[in-house]
Amino acid sequence: VRNFGAIARSAECSGVHALIIPKKGAAQINAEALKTSAGALNIIPVCRESSLMAAIEQLQMAGVQVFASDLQAKKSVHQMDFVGPIALVVGAEGDGVSRPILGKVDDTFIIPQNGETDSFNVSVAAGIVMYATV
Q1: What's this model's pTM, rounded to 2 decimal places?
Q2: Rounded distance, CA 74 to CA 71, Å?
Q3: How far is residue 67's CA from residue 85's CA, in Å, rounded to a whole number?
Q4: DSSP secondary structure string, 1-43?
Q5: Which residues are within 8 A (CB) of 129 and not within 5 positions of it... i.e. 6 or more apart?
């Protein structure tokens, strides 16, 4: 819930138009999420979709390029061309983005890191990537 609130806060600060989350298994929009978002969840629309695959397909048919973070990606986030309408996919803590979703997106990227920890926290990763798009 706190990660979701933090993602919403970074999204609103970065000019993101909406958040898309799954109907099942996603964090709830509750008092804790609202507090962590510093009010951003009162501003930014949140779309709960029963199928993220279908949502990605709809975005692509509308001309939106969809990019996903992936620890196995060959390109750095800094090498991406985030011009035009885009959507970003970040994975769940520990699991990352699912293979079927990775197979559907237009391209993948990795956030470079130097430490020994295997990845950034999802809200931190989302903030880094959203900032890269600005």
Answers
A1: 0.91
A2: 9
A3: 11
A4: -HHHHHHHHHHHHHT---EEEESSSSPP--HHHHHHTTTGGGT
A5: 69, 77, 88, 90, 109, 111
